[in-house]
Records
---
Amino acid sequence: MEYRRLGDSDLMVSEISLGSWLTYGVGVEADKARACLEAAFEQGINFIDTANVYGRGAAESFLGEALQGRPRDSYVLATKLFFPMSDSDRGLSRGQVEKQLNASLQRLRTDYVDLYQCHRYDWETPLEETMEALTRAVESGKVRHIGFSEWPAERIQAAMDLAQLPSGDMPAKFVSSQPQYSLLWREPEAEVVPLCTRYNIGQIVWSPLGQGVLTGKYEPGRPLPQGTRATSEEMSGWMDRLLAEPVLEAVQQLKPVAAEAGLSLTQFALAWVLREPNVSSAIIGASRPEQVVENAGASGVTVDPALFARAEEIVAEALEARTPA
């Protein structure tokens, strides 16, 4: 396993990280989830990502129990806040940052998190209030570093402008961005990645395998395989656009390209994400230990850029064919 620095922080994170969205505490049984976590550590993965809203606290609670007994400085732990935890608890206000952070720490059974992330932008709370609250969280020792997920570029810029104000009460600075990014979803390349590169904010990307579509297991014209994410009531949300026939056909065309690189399609897709220097880590979701092992094999590989270019052309044609005239 290779490691990269997360933005300009002091955190060295594994190129492949383990996430818990829709899986641990929700769609994957506890014993299988624990086996995946153990496999991750065996492969050298040191970065674990979760959020308070995953299973309304269930994912954090699972991790809090499963990580007991493991030295706290042997892994990097990240969580998030923003989405509703009750009818009245949501957003990034000063009160919510304090309340949700304390609740997360209690579920995770730890005194601090290495990375605390704003899960989305809160348009109902002044940015200054959010940044002040995050700064207090860092100063308290409960949070080492802060990040955000899926923020618009202009709001990222506004936050960085605040962090650079010449004052003795300077807000904490973001070190990470968590966008969706894969061969099937390249939107961050337009604005977010260039902006974050300028400010040395590292990307920890979610859904680098297009929720499993880029593994090639979903074949065009055939029923969805039972036992996969696409057939799970808990885990299949947001997959419709990825399961369009042109997309599935293109993914099958990527298999020989990956083979030419000496990789499985899964490893090739992860290596494509990691080719971007601004990406610090690619978050995987796994329901079986063998998936963790295969995914970890994407770290540190060298791929001919011409093969990546060919893959990009195949996917671009498929996405264009899917788009109505």
---
Amino acid sequence: MNTQIINLLQEIKMELKNKKNNTWMDIKKVCEITTLSASTVRRAVNRGKLKCSKKLGKLLFMESDVRQWING
């Protein structure tokens, strides 16, 4: 029974970690996290290397996509 509880807690932990990485960020926040300039981020978007949403008239990025782009 203890191993079932531990396994369940580990699953919950992973689920919470995944949800945290799926938050939307604007370009300012991406620049803060990556320490890159806005022009570098925009260049990656234009080249198709970084996915983003252009709804609402501004660039919005999923944190998981940004981390994947940075890690290569």
